[in-house]
Amino acid sequence: MSGRPTITALICALNEEASIPHILPMIPEWVDEVLLVDGHSTDKTVEMAKEFRPDIKVVYQPGKGKGDALKCGIENSTGDIIVTLDADGSTAPEEMEEFVKPLLNGYEFAKGSRFRGTLPHNKPWYRILGNWIITLTFDVLFLRRYTDLCSGYNAFHKAAIEQARPWPLDGFENEPFINCRMVKRGVKVIEIAHTDRGRIQGDVKELSWRQGFKAIKTMIRERFRG
Description:
The protein has 226 residues and is α/β, with parallel strands linked by helices. It has helices spanning 20-23, 45-52, 66-76, 96-103, 125-142, 158-161, 174-184, 209-223, and strands spanning 7-13, 33-38, 57-60, 81-86, 109-113, 154-157, 189-193.
């Protein structure tokens, strides 16, 4: 991985003390910066992160919501390339190279998919259905063939994600919004299959039906925005 842009691994976390010790040691050595955005955790998430990765950079998001945390992380990262990992342990850091390689060969956004080849680990049918509806809506609106719009495993050039500004949304719908902006502005995107290992411990923090409808409304509004 020599002679390449600098790389930041970005993890947004809220009360993930059980999973952080399993994630941080698996991040490849060639990653230049590991950035943890803490969403006001009440457990030992930050303490565990510093124990298992002494060089980790920790920032505290100013607001609430996954979208707000993602914006905070992007703004505070120093890498030319940013790779986002889920804090619950469901994404495998050892697969990061598969996301970075396309960005070194002309692509600007490597979008993760849990549905290319096999179904995600232990996902209930209604979660799969909800994700399918959101992804299908995006594909119809923007004439794409994505298989998973809701994966938290993504990589992008920081310069490319800046093209999606402004980011006015703070919830889960911010991710579909960014995808809309990237497509509308001609960013070169590739979808990358990745493993879904399932959450290590605790309750899964996924889209509710209400959040799903907000995501769909966001995509429709963005599609027809001038």
